[in-house]
């Protein structure tokens, strides 16, 4: 199959064609020609004048639901949601049933995603059954295709176990992925501890739970000289701690979740269960500090922490609601309203995650087609028709967006939106 993209502005800092308008011919899933004008007959012609094309985007943390919770989302619907949001690679946490903790579990996800419009990379569990007691066989999972290692939504609480895990992955230059949450600090907290939590009567979770875990994990990474990626940072103090650690040469990278860039604790006054997330939404000052952390190059990636929940888990009292919101479909458009530049957004969705997790690609002849075509200026309101998940627990319904994904191309798999 031949796909011809006409007159797209190439946005790829790793390409010799960066910031030029070119035609791109894809033949049997491989970039065959890049030229100012290509007249070859193709099976599919994409008119992309006025649009941008980059290497496909990467989300480094979504919440796993397949196997075991396919009523929320399966691999096909997760891939559909990701592709519609411009993502050609997503990382999936191991919190499935059974837990992704063996080569068999990894191979199931890798094999089933091969022909989907988005490649789903499993994160292998660090501890058996994510119970924080005994290490898994991480090398076997790495050899089978695990992109990184972590206990997903369950942070590794034992410093001794995390040291062993960090030492273990150095054998193959792997990365441990952690959510910063000391679960011994206010384990029943429902939102950020502060004036708002007191006013609306919800138990609070203090910033300290995140700050302690980040400080500890940085020191463990320093001690082991290993790589750690902290995902879902939510505090100004977290940005400062990671800034200092990077300056000191610690192999730490980090990502901020989309909802922490858009919403704050003030948005919980109406008890919106779609905004029940962990780590919780913080203050407006924290939100501004996170955006500045992106602009300053301290925060490496933006992730959606996409978490599908059945409607019964959200249509209930806030205290009993499930954690998480959908985010893949809305990500690019709502980021366009934050004041971030397109280059800053691309750095966090594309260049940095590919570099950290070694997903090679560049828009060059001979490379596999792994592309996202997008419009930076189209505006509108995000509505339910744009949700591709089986679930509909999106906090972004009714939010304005600026920027729209036009299509993705992964090998010969072309999707238009």
Give the termini separation. 20 Å
The CATH class of the largest domain is: Alpha Beta
Q: How many structural domains does the protein architecture include?
A: 2
Rounded mean pLDDT score? 97
Largest sheet: 8 strands, mixed
Query: What structural class do helix, strand and pairing data support?
Result: alpha/beta
| CATH homologous superfamily (4th level) name of the largest domain | Metal-dependent hydrolases
Strand content: 15-25%
* CATH third-tier fold name of the largest domain: TIM Barrel
Helix coverage percent: 25-40%
Helix count? 11
Present the secondary structure layout.
Elements: E1 2-10, E2 21-27, E3 30-35, E4 44-47, E5 52-55, E6 57-62, H1 75-84, E7 87-92, H2 103-113, E8 119-124, H3 138-144, E9 148-149, H4 159-169, E10 175-178, E11 191-192, H5 195-200, E12 204-205, H6 208-224, E13 227-231, H7 236-247, E14 252-257, H8 258-262, H9 284-295, E15 301-303, H10 331-335, H11 342-356, E16 370-381, E17 400-410, E18 413-416
Parallel strand pairs: 1-4, 1-5, 6-7, 7-8, 8-9, 10-13, 11-12, 13-14, 14-15
Antiparallel strand pairs: 1-2, 2-3, 5-16, 16-17, 17-18
Helix pairs in contact: 2-3, 4-6, 6-7
């Amino acid at each position: 199959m031949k796909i011809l993209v006409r007159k797209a502005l190439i946005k790829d800092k790793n390409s010799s064609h960066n910031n030029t308008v070119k035609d791109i011919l894809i033949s049997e899933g491989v970039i065959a020609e890049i030229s100012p004008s290509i007249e070859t007959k193709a099976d599919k012609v994409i008119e992309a004048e006025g649009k941008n094309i980059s290497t496909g985007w990467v989300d480094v943390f979504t919440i796993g639901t397949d196997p075991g919770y396919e009523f929320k989302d399966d691999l096909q619907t997760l891939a559909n949601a990701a592709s519609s949001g411009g993502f050609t690679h997503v990382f999936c946490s191991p919190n499935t049933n059974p837990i992704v903790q063996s080569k068999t579990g990894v191979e199931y996800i890798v094999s089933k995603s091969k022909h989907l419009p988005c490649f789903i990379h499993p994160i292998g569990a660090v501890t058996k059954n994510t119970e924080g007691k005994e290490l898994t066989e991480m090398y076997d999972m790495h050899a089978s295709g695990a992109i990184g290692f972590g206990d997903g939504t369950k942070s590794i609480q034992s410093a001794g176990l995390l040291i062993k895990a960090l030492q273990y992955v150095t054998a193959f230059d792997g990365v441990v992925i952690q959510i910063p949450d000391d679960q011994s600090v206010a384990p029943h907290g429902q939102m950020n501890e502060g004036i708002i939590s007191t006013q609306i009567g919800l138990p609070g979770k203090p910033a300290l739970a995140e700050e302690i875990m980040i400080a500890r994990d940085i020191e463990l990474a320093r001690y082991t000289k290993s790589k750690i990626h902290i995902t879902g940072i939510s505090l100004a103090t977290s940005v400062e701690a990671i800034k200092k650690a990077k300056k000191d040469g610690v192999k730490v990278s980090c990502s901020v979740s989309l909802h922490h860039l858009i919403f704050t604790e003030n948005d919980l006054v109406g008890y919106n269960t779609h905004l029940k997330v962990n780590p919780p939404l913080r203050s407006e000052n924290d939100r501004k500090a996170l955006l500045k952390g992106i602009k300053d190059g301290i925060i490496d990636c933006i992730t959606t922490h996409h978490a599908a929940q059945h409607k019964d888990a959200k249509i209930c009292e806030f205290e009993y609601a499930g954690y998480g919101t959908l985010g893949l479909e809305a990500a690019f458009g709502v980021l366009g309203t934050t004041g971030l530049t397109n280059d800053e957004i691309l750095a966090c969705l594309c260049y940095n995650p590919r570099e950290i997790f070694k997903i090679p690609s560049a828009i060059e002849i001979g490379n596999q087609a792994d592309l996202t075509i997008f419009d930076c200026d189209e505006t509108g309101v995000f509505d339910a028709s744009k949700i591709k998940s089986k679930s509909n627990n999106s906090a972004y319904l009714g939010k304005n967006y600026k920027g729209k994904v036009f299509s993705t191309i992964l090998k010969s798999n072309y999707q238009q939106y």
